[in-house]
Amino acid sequence: VMSILLHGDAAFAGQGIVYETFHLSDLPSYTTHGTVHVVVNNQIGFTTDPRMARSSPYPTDVARVVNAPIFHVNADDPEAVVYVCNVAAEWRSTFHKDVVVDLVCYRRNGHNEMDEPMFTQPLMYKQIRKQKPVLQKYAELLISQGVVNQPEYEEEIAKYDKICEEAHARSKDEKILHIKHWLDSPWPGFFTLDGQPRSMTCPSTSLNEEDLTHIGQVASSVPVEDFTIHGGLSRILKTRGEMVKNRTVDWALAEYMAFGSLLKEGIHIRLSGQDVERGTF
């Protein structure tokens, strides 16, 4: 499994979670073994000029905190983009570290239907209006190289348009949306045919007293002989041992028994969160 994150340029530079995610990238027990970050860099955050949005030349400079390689590529050149993405995937699979692909491109239309970018970015959008679209540019290149001819190109365009038109026409016949249509394969049987969840019953997870006592005794003892334990901890363990004898439990012991029962069945447990190692809470 390879994680790929898709970012916008303004979000990449401006959202704290991007920085946090980079710093999680190589932590023991948390590592993703490298994420490929793809930044769709249209050089404008909604209406904000980059100079007003960040202090660094590139939005991807935040990736330097983990020394991730950053590839800036001209998105008007599809073959260069594919080449760079192959290098990024290879880097990730070889070194298991994060890598960033910065697609330097532009947005031809506004942020949404209501947005007219000429209001805030007139100079930039005058340039964009003059730009040939990527598809046209690439088609002209391939035709000039003799890879395809004009009729073949037009046929492909027509074929794709037909797929879109047919899907659009079919969408008008859909009167109801089923949740299950949007779910991936690991969920067979989770929803009924009409899209409603099945009853949320689950098998009994109770334990017999013998198992609970055993887990409780393990939880209140030190597994190593001749081990000097902190006085405060030994008091806690002693109290816990007495609770097991008296057949009473507090929240902490109940939690311990739940974890212990899973471990006893060979199920791996990873504790995470605030101060779990010290057990402060």
From TrEMBL:
Its cofactor is Mg(2+); thiamine diphosphate. This is oxoglutarate dehydrogenase (succinyl-transferring). Keywords: Calcium, Glycolysis, Magnesium, Mitochondrion, Nucleus, Oxidoreductase, Thiamine pyrophosphate, Transit peptide. The keyword Acyltransferase does not apply. Transmembrane segments: none annotated. Its main location: mitochondrion. Belongs to the alpha-ketoglutarate dehydrogenase family. Its EC number is 1.2.4.2. Gene3D superfamilies: 3.40.50.12470, 3.40.50.970. One of its GO terms (biological process) is tricarboxylic acid cycle. GO terms for cellular component: mitochondrion; nucleus; oxoglutarate dehydrogenase complex. GO terms for molecular function: oxoglutarate dehydrogenase (succinyl-transferring) activity; thiamine pyrophosphate binding. It catalyses: N(6)-[(R)-lipoyl]-L-lysyl-[protein] + 2-oxoglutarate + H(+) = N(6)-[(R)-S(8)-succinyldihydrolipoyl]-L-lysyl-[protein] + CO2. It is found in: Mitochondrion; Nucleus. Residues 2-179 form the Dehydrogenase E1 component domain. It comes from the Eukaryota. The keyword Cell cycle does not apply.
